[in-house]
Design a protein that fits this description.
It is a single chain. The chain has helices at residues 14-26, 48-58, 75-79, 87-97, 131-140, 160-167, 208-211, 284-299, 317-328; strands at residues 31-34, 39-44, 67-69, 102-107, 122-126, 144-145, 187-191, 198-202, 217-219, 243-247, 260-264, 274-277, 305-309. With 329 residues, the chain is α/β, with parallel strands linked by helices. The protein has 2 domains: 14-219, DHBP synthase, CATH 3.90.870.10; 243-328, 3-Layer(aba) Sandwich (Rossmann fold). The strands form 2 sheets. The protein has a 9-stranded mixed β-sheet with strand order 1-2-6-3-5-4-7-8-9, with helices on both faces. A 4-stranded parallel β-sheet has the order 10-13-11-12, with helices on one face. α1 (14-26) packs across α5. The longest helix has 16 residues, at 284-299.
Length: 329
């Protein structure tokens, strides 16, 4: 286990660190916690003031709703109002993919603060599979709103040090659980109340092929909305400070200037000032797990531009390409 970071730099036991995090949460503060996807900025999902602190720390617009993490499956019916016609499908998905990187957008109960759902009649919910996050939310015993622990629109954090770079001085505590497993945010689906259609609002580690075992799937993540119904639906997101342009895998990759970097799919190309390779063996899981960390490294090199090579648009590659397109927008 990596070092558990507290505000004074001390390194307590896991038990004490979890207890300290819960103390902050009970006071209405927000803390950064690792999930299996990216690091999340967690606050009490039943407390509008805590939700406001999340928006403030991230500089996130209030029209962009938050994902809420449930302590247990029993909270699904306490936090959401699953339509009768969708109950079988929703519970089948929860039993298969929870805890794990699948978020479902469902009608919310009145107890969910308007700010958490950005005034929408729905709320996005999931259960995290990360052991540290699970320990905190189970001891807290209430849902935690936990979007990515970065400033709005920036590259998502996959290590505690990324959270420090983004939010130092804005939050009281980071629990360091080491690098995250998946490296890209959860898949988000909306479940049709009548026909059982699954609408993919954001691609992620749970792929379309996996979801198709449970019903008809329609991918809508390319739709650009002024007021999104789920996180990650804005045209520009996950963006580095450095200008990023995309290159197709089958096309020749060209250097666009003296201080041009390359985010390559499988192999480096000569002539670039700095190169990061996502996976030399062509492993999409490895590419996803290291995507944001390698984008950050390039972004910190003082480059004028970054060329990002798209990956094969299949399986987890769909989620990777979605993040690259939004980062370049």
């Amino acid at each position: 286990m990596e070092t558990l970071l507290l505000p004074d730099g001390s390194t307590p036991s896991i038990e004490n660190a979890v207890a300290r995090a819960v103390e902050y949460l009970e006071q209405g503060a927000v803390v950064a916690l690792p999930t299996e996807t990216v690091y999340g900025l967690a606050g009490d999902a039943m407390n509008a003031s805590a939700a406001a602190r999340i928006f403030e720390a991230k500089e996130r617009p209030f029209f962009d709703p938050l994902i809420c993490h449930l302590p247990s499956l029993e909270w699904l019916d306490r936090f959401t109002n699953v339509p009768r016609g969708a109950r079988t499908l929703v519970h089948a998905l929860a039993e298969r993919f929870w805890p794990g990187p699948l978020t479902m957008v469902l009608p919310r109960r009145a107890e969910v603060p308007d700010l958490v759902s950005s005034g929408l009649p729905t709320v996005a919910v999931r259960q995290s599979a990360h052991s540290l996050f699970s320990m905190v939310v189970e001891r807290f015993a209430r849902p935690l709103a936990a979007p990515s622990a970065n400033r709005f629109g920036r590259i998502s954090p996959t290590r505690a040090e990324h959270v420090r770079q983004e939010l130092d001085g804005r939050i009281p505590m980071i629990l360091d659980g080491g690098p995250t497993l998946h490296g890209v945010e959860s898949t988000i689906v909306s479940v049709d109340a009548v026909g059982g259609m699954l609408r993919v609002l954001r691609s992620g580690p749970v792929t379309r092929e996996q979801l198709e075992l449970y019903g008809e799937v329609r991918v809508e993540e390319g739709t650009v909305l002024e007021h999104p119904e789920a996180p990650g639906q804005l045209k520009s997101h996950y963006a580095p400070r450095t200008r990023m342009v995309l290159a197709k895998p089958s096309a020749g990759i060209e250097v666009t200037g003296e201080k041009c970097g390359l985010l390559a799919w499988r192999s480096a190309v000569a002539g670039f000032a700095q190169v990061e390779v996502l996976s030399s063996v062509g492993d999409l899981r490895e590419a996803a797990a290291t995507l944001f960390a390698k984008m950050r490294r390039l972004d910190d090199c003082g480059l004028e531009s970054i060329v990002a090579e798209l990956v094969p648009n299949e399986g987890l590659g769909v989620a990777i390409n979605d993040r690259l397109r939004k980062a370049s927008a």
